[in-house]
């Protein structure tokens, strides 16, 4: 590892790896670091993503695709089921990945583009001079080091310290954090080509339960609940109750816990010499929690903007604000709309959820966009007009 680079990327998830790859493709000298000894492990993700979005960045590979999904089923609290096509089901439906393999595959593309990749390497602080980030201090396999860079990319997830060190307000309110638990379950009866979602405040307060297939009789079964709805009962407790009800004979072979931002994008994504991508910039979908595609989009934009800034010799806060603008132009409208939708859904009673679900039974969802779906809901449930009107 050298003492100076053009770009240092902290965190080798999909967002960080795409940022590193893009910057390296522009001929920049890039260092990509990961604090864990294995990229992609442990998994803290339901592992679902859309096909169209993913193929913008990676050629599909059966080594990291566990299941191909053609749609989704949403179960209201009373069991009423709404079936959605893949197109309407959202960016988390299409493929269910094996993230342990996928994340490494994305990091390999960064390495092949010319980036240096180092695992067991952790940033512990930033080098800041005259208000501009100029590199990092850290530990590499237990040894202290310093490495300077023209731009640092914070891709260190929901718990991002890089942004805080740079003076960016990354604080999340309890109402904007989904705390999650997930089991990898085998020997269960599932619909192998559908991602299933279970709603209800008794099952997952302010969130939902997901069942994402990873084979014919295997699935990620997980649950997210809002931090503001915590009353002493943890997500894993709700998840165990769901398992006892839905998959009592299922065999749990892996458990993961973590958190997902449901806040919408940070107001500030960059400063002099630094940008934030992926969950560090809170670009995950506020209503689903999905962040793979959005994270890679932010990483690609970051790599392009950084390359132009470095080549111009200007990595000031003003110059890097172009990154903020382009991410907002690309993802902002969708994230704002879905944040409003999240705020509506978490306040909705189980009775209203059941009523809406019943009113949509028999609706033809083919080629129906989200706005059209919302209009259909209002038409069939006029009492929801005020709450839903702001989502258009």
Automatic annotation (TrEMBL):
Cofactor remark: Binds 1 FAD per subunit.
Single GO term (MF): oxidoreductase activity, acting on the CH-CH group of donors, iron-sulfur protein as acceptor
Keywords per UniProt: FAD, Flavoprotein, Lipid biosynthesis, Lipid metabolism, Oxidoreductase, Phospholipid biosynthesis, Phospholipid metabolism
Every FAD-dependent oxidoreductase 2 FAD-binding domain range: 6-51
Pathway: Membrane lipid metabolism; glycerophospholipid metabolism
Residues noted as binding FAD in the record, renumbered to the chain: 15, 34, 45-46, 48, 99, 123, 279, 291-292
Binding positions (a 2,3-bis-O-(geranylgeranyl)-sn-glycerol 1-phospholipid): 370
GO cellular component, one term: membrane
EC number: 1.3.7.11
GO biological process: glycerophospholipid biosynthetic process; membrane lipid biosynthetic process
Domain Digeranylgeranylglycerophospholipid reductase catalytic residue range list: 176-260
InterPro entries associated with the record: DGGGPL_reductase, FAD-dep_OxRdtase_2_FAD-bd, FAD/NAD-bd_sf, Geranylgeranyl_Rdtase_fam, Geranylgeranyl_reductase, GGR_cat
Highest taxon in the source lineage: Archaea
Enzyme class: oxidoreductase
Cofactor: FAD
Catalysed reaction, written as an equation: archaetidylserine + 8 AH2 = 2,3-bis-O-phytanyl-sn-glycero-3-phospho-L-serine + 8 A; a 2,3-bis-O-phytanyl-sn-glycerol 1-phospholipid + 8 oxidized 2[4Fe-4S]-[ferredoxin] = a 2,3-bis-O-(geranylgeranyl)-sn-glycerol 1-phospholipid + 8 reduced 2[4Fe-4S]-[ferredoxin] + 16 H(+); 2,3-bis-O-(phytanyl)-sn-glycerol 1-phosphate + 8 oxidized 2[4Fe-4S]-[ferredoxin] = 2,3-bis-O-(geranylgeranyl)-sn-glycerol 1-phosphate + 8 reduced 2[4Fe-4S]-[ferredoxin] + 16 H(+); a 2,3-bis-O-phytanyl-sn-glycerol 1-phospholipid + 8 A = a 2,3-bis-O-(geranylgeranyl)-sn-glycerol 1-phospholipid + 8 AH2
Gene3D superfamilies linked: D-Amino Acid Oxidase, subunit A, domain 2, FAD/NAD(P)-binding domain
Family: Belongs to the geranylgeranyl reductase family. DGGGPL reductase subfamily.
PANTHER family attached to this UniProt entry: DIGERANYLGERANYLGLYCEROPHOSPHOLIPID REDUCTASE, GERANYLGERANYL DIPHOSPHATE REDUCTASE
Note: Reduction reaction proceeds via syn addition of hydrogen for double bonds.
Protein name according to UniProt: Digeranylgeranylglycerophospholipid reductase
Organism listed in the record: Methanocella conradii (strain DSM 24694 / JCM 17849 / CGMCC 1.5162 / HZ254)
Encoding gene, per UniProt annotation: bchP
């Amino acid at each position: 590892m050298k003492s100076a680079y053009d770009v240092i990327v902290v965190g080798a998830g999909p967002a960080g790896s795409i940022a590193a790859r893009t910057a390296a493709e522009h001929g920049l000298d890039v260092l990509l670091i990961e604090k864990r000894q294995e990229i992609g492990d442990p998994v803290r993700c339901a592992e679902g993503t859309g096909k169209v979005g993913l193929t913008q960045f990676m050629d599909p590979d059966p080594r990291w695709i566990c299941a191909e999904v053609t749609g989704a089923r949403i179960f209201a609290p009373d069991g009423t089921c709404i079936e959605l096509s893949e197109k309407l089901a959202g960016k988390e439906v299409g493929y269910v990945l094996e993230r342990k393999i996928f994340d490494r595959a994305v990091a390999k593309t960064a390495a092949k583009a010319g980036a240096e990749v180092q695992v067991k390497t952790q940033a512990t602080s930033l080098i800041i001079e005259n208000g501009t980030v100029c590199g990092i201090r850290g530990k590499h396999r237990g040894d202290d080091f310093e490495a300077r860079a023209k731009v640092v990319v914070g891709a260190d997830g929901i718990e991002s310290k890089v942004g805080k060190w740079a003076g960016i307000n990354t604080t999340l309110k309890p109402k904007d954090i989904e705390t999650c638990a997930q089991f990898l379950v085998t020997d269960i009866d599932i619909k192998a080509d559908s991602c299933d979602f279970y709603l209800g405040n008794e099952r997952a307060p302010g969130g939902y339960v997901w069942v994402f297939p990873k084979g014919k009789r295997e699935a990620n079964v997980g649950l997210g609940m809002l931090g503001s709805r915590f009353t002493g009962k943890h997500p894993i407790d709700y998840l165990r109750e769901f398992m006892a009800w839905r998959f009592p004979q299922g065999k749990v072979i892996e458990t993961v816990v973590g958190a997902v931002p449901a806040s919408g994008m940070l107001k500030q994504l960059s400063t002099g010499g630094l940008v934030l991508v992926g969950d560090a910039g809170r670009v995950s979908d506020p209503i689903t929690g999905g962040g793979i595609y959005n994270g890679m989009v932010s990483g690609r934009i970051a790599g392009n903007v950084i390359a132009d800034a470095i080549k111009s010799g200007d990595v000031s806060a003003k110059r890097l604000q172009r990154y903020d603008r382009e991410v907002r132009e690309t993802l902002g409208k969708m994230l704002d709309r879905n944040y409003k939708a999240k705020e509506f859904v978490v306040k909705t009673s189980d009775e209203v959820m059941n009523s809406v679900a019943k009113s949509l039974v028999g609706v033809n969802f083919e080629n129906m966009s989200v706005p059209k779906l919302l209009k259909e809901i209002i038409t069939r449930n006029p009492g929801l007009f005020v709450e839903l009107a702001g989502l258009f």
